[in-house]
User: What shape does this take?
Amino acid sequence: MRRRAGLVLLAFAVFFAALSPLLRWYAFPRLAKIPPNQYQETVLEARPATLLDYTTLKAKKVDRITIVQTLKGNVEASEKIERSAGRDVVVWDALSYVQGPDGKMVSKIPERYIFDAHSQAPVHATGEMVDGDPVRREGIEFKWPFLTEKRDYEYFDAQTRTSSPIHYKGTRNFRGMEVYYFEQTIPWTKVPMPKSMPIKGITAEQIAKTGVTRWYTTKRMFWVDPVTGAPVNGEEVHREELRNAKAMGMSEDTVTVFAGHVKMREDYVVSIVDMVKSQRVLVLLLTSYLPWGFLALGAVLLALALWLEARSRRPGATAPDPTPGPGTDPAPTPA
Assistant: This one.
């Protein structure tokens, strides 16, 4: 019985030892994916800020500028691309909507971001765009890969339509979480005018014909959970200018369009941190808790199987035969 029990335990030990790497290297890439129908809204604010007053064509100080950033999964588009790409694809229709202190629109820039559901690597397909302009992204945007590494990544900048390194700057503690801090600086760069202008009847093409150009620089900062790859906080020190502005009748040749330190609103920080903390447990189950747990369980079962086998081989481990041998007198029967 001991030998049979030892063989059963040995079989379970092999099973759990084999299951450990399968969970990490086979199941994890197939199960840890961004859902195609995800919807997320984030509100950021710059308090205070500088904003161009289009009625006076002069920059002025304002109490607040609000940026509403939405990411909406387009399931129909992702399924269509998946048929030709041969892998799970997510399509995010994003919108960055900027409004002034009076609630009026300052600018809005739509994007379509297409990427691999697990690795977050860009997938190039028809429809990939920023503000109606076709683009070909390199690197990441909005989200880092699962199990983010301590290294620089290529990060796509929607304003310049280009990618450049976003640098790993160290490990920080944020709201009780160990996160990786990344930073990217975009130098002054000439960028296209937004298609949607805050003044009705004026188009980007009309402004471009005057010779006025739009320039932009930013310092971008992200605090990223390394397990899920999700940013739990983000900030930008952002500045935009119109140059050769006298061509439009402005008093100065360089006019600030928008300048401010943009930060995520506190209630959204709390909400995102809570969501990431719950999601990271699922990722850790597939990458750490279950694989290491199954490996430890396999080792324990193997040790127990070997112990039972050793006991079954010890001298005297076999129970003596109760049948009397030849020449042995039977025990007297009591009267």
